[in-house]
Amino acid sequence: MPRGRHAIPSARVYPLPIATLMSFASFGFLFVFLPIALTGFCLAARWGAGAAIAWLLACSVAFYPMAHWPVLAVSMAGNALLGRWIRATEGTQAQSRILALGIGLNLVGLAVARGWDAVPPGISFIAFGQIGWLLDQRGGPPDADGRQTAATHALTILFFPHLLAGPILRLRDIAEQCADPRTWQPSGGNLAAGGAMLLIGLLKKTLLANPLGALVTPGFADPASLGLLPAWAAALAWSFQLYFDFSGYSDMAIGLARMFGVRFPVNFASPYKAQSVVEYWQRWHMTLTHFLMSTVYNPLALAAMRRRRARGLGVDRAAQRTAGGFAAMLLGPLVATMLLAGLWHGATLPYLVFGLLHAFWLGVNHAWRTFRPGPRSQAWHAVAGRVAATYLCVLLASVVFRAPSLDVAGTLFAGMLGWHQGGPYLHGALHAVWLAGLGAIVWGMPNSQQIVDGAIWRPTLPWAMAAGCAATLGLLSLGGTHEFVYFQF
């Protein structure tokens, strides 16, 4: 397969040897880095919260590839100064200008970094985290000496469980936890629950996501050779690979943070069970969705409302049901937000089209809610139909997301319509049963949060024995260079 945009890991994204970029699903991380980090945390906690935080930050420094640390150091120092400046100008008109300057500098830095031959890992997550940090500096009293702010800032951006691929943390997600000394006291309960979440994520990655490359890679490498069923198999396999890869990473990130006493926000909540594309984005990459809603969509929608009020036009629900009101207050902000969501993944045409596709699906969804309001049928066939329709929209956009070019995506779509004959890609019933089994897991099983924090998992001996067997399977499946998909962003 040619090393294109989605050859993971790619030489363009990671010019360093893969060992310098520690994956959670690797022997080096699980058997060297993590035990040292946990042991040091337990020892440092004896000297108080400050020592525990300092140790975790030191671990985060060791975790990130050293060749890219100068970029991260400049970003941290610059945003720390901007944050102090924003707090110092509270209540003045200058604060908004400084905030706008800080957001602009972070976006320009992101664009410049993406143009390098060696893109720093996790640069998109770091940039959005820094913007969120600056936004959260408004309206709060400054600390007496800035030390707590500096520690919270560093942990919000640098904490290794989310440093490379999220979740995107905001100050409100972690500030109270940082200030609570109980957070930094090692807990057997946190260690057990976090370990369970970590194990679930590991199994998703190694047993479910990685093997799907055997269907996905050849399918997207030569889509012209795929007939009807093989093309659908490639598309379905990719949608499941992306699902289990990203949900596996999110589980591992949340579980790792929990082992150190920190609770991350939920980032993935069974998105393929969504009954609309709006609900899908409320379940998929939830911290990114919340970030874009609060920093892009809501300000644009409020600005549109202010412009309409200035012109004497309505802004209520009745006004939203007019063509002009819907376009100005809903559709315009929505398209801008999803364009940014697409370009956040990368400044390429397929990502741009991916964002536009989801803007179209969301626009249709909002139009239906606005112009055809009313209760939805809860009959099983109606629910199943909504879930299937939503998944089909997501599936089509995910093909564009994965394809190295629009030509490849179009060729695969042609195969899915049966427009060209293909060779034997789907080997009998085996692959069909495989994909059906994965579908049963996606739509029929509870998600990780429901298992660990609900009434299913308990720190008991039977669960410990089951976890041991599962861990053995997961560890036996480690190996190769199967990086998480979102590491390239």
Quickly list its features.
disordered N terminus, mainly alpha, 67% helix, globular, 489 residues, 2 domains
Description:
The chain has 489 residues and is an all-alpha fold. The chain folds into two domains: 18-187, no CATH class; 190-488, no CATH class. 67% of the residues lie in helices and 0% in strands. It has 21 helices and no strands. It has helices spanning 27-44, 49-63, 69-88, 94-114, 123-135, 147-158, 160-163, 171-179, 188-209, 213-221, 228-259, 277-283, 286-310, 317-320, 323-345, 349-371, 380-402, 406-416, 430-444, 448-452, 461-476. Helix 13 (286-310) packs antiparallel against helix 15 (323-345). The protein is globular. 39% of the residues are buried. The model is unreliable at 1-20 (pLDDT under 50).
